[in-house]
Amino acid sequence: MDERTLVVLLIEDNPADATLMQILLEEEPPGAYPVASGGFTLEQAEHLSSGLERLRQGGVDLVLLDLGLPDSSGLDTFYAVQEQAPHLPIVVLTGLDDERLARQAIRSGAQDYLLKGRVDGELLLRSLCYALERKRAEQSLRRYGREQATLYAVSSAVNALLDPDELLQEMLDLILPLFGAPAGWVTLPGNTLDDPPQVPASLGIPQEFLEAESALPLRECPVCSKMIEQGARLSAPQFLTECLRLPAGVRERAPFRCHVSIPLSAAEEVLGLLNIAWPAERPYTEAEGSLLLSVGRQIGMALHNAQLYQAARQ
């Protein structure tokens, strides 16, 4: 259930049609559909160019799109909006003589279409809510597919590697692109949290940062030490804007502003931390958090087995 007011961007050059849409939305009381219990508010753009600019600004939840605009017409109009905001549901508006075109838009990814002159308040509200639900279902299926592909790729890689350092570097090379991260590193604690840690694998991290990371005990950062001591029982990864144990100058010069620390756990013991870094602050969903913890457990078990194998060889 979404109780906030959702913003609908109407890209339509006809003032009469825009006024009608506004009236129809105001006629329907909010709360009829759980997906939009807070109701809708309408914003209008009269040209494709101004509509695309409004989408670039963000804060839009759904697009009502007329396929015939002063500066664009036909499916090219739809493709331009879809390219600008692929995450948003799009409901196409068209005339009776262009219904075939609207159906082509549906096949190309639009969530629904409405015929001008045949729209009432109930139909409009139902179409908007249907579009929201359909888009969310599509995104959920894509996310599930990505999660399964991630877990399969990690599982395949970890089962083939028995050298701990090679394993951790391979995991960084594999996982960072999957989460759109340009940088990352692995921290393994010393014998105790008061001993300097090891950084056996990294990607995209300056040497200055790595030297500072491996020189200061994890005990000096309350978040890092908590991750090692309680990581196996965490219900979500820890997102950090900075690591408190590193010198301020090093933190400021780091090429990222946000990183997530994932415990690498095996048999309730945390063997280390996998850190994934982004250049700007990045929110994460609950599903991503669960996926990250699952990846951490898989890598932790593989690291545990690789360490046992190495010890046996020695």
Q: TL;DR of this structure?
A:
With 314 residues, the protein is of the alpha/beta class. The chain has helices spanning 15-27, 48-57, 75-84, 99-107, 121-158, 164-178, 207-215, 222-230, 248-253, 286-313, and strands at 6-11, 40-45, 62-66, 68-69, 72-73, 90-94, 112-115, 183-188, 198-203, 238-240, 258-266, 269-278.
Report, as a whole number of angstroms, the end-to-end distance.
58 Å
The number of distinct helices, counting runs of at least 4 residues, comes to 10
Mean pLDDT: 82
Structural class: alpha/beta
The profile of the biggest β sheet is: 5 strands, parallel
Q: Give the oligomeric state.
A: single chain
**Overall 3D form:** elongated
Low-pLDDT regions = none
Strand order of the largest sheet: 2-1-3-6-7
Percent strand equals: 15-25%
Q: Give the ordered list of helices and strands.
A: EHEHEEEHEHEHHEEHHEHEEH
* Rg, Å, rounded: 25 Å
Count all strands and give the number: 12
Helix content: 40-55%
Structure, explained:
There is one protein chain. By secondary structure, this protein is of the alpha/beta class. 47% of the residues lie in helices and 20% in strands. The chain has a five-stranded parallel beta sheet, with helices on both faces. A five-stranded antiparallel beta sheet has the order 9-8-12-11-10. A two-stranded antiparallel sheet has the order 4-5. Helix 4 links the parallel strand 6 and strand 7. The chain starts with 5 loop residues before the first strand and ends with a helix.
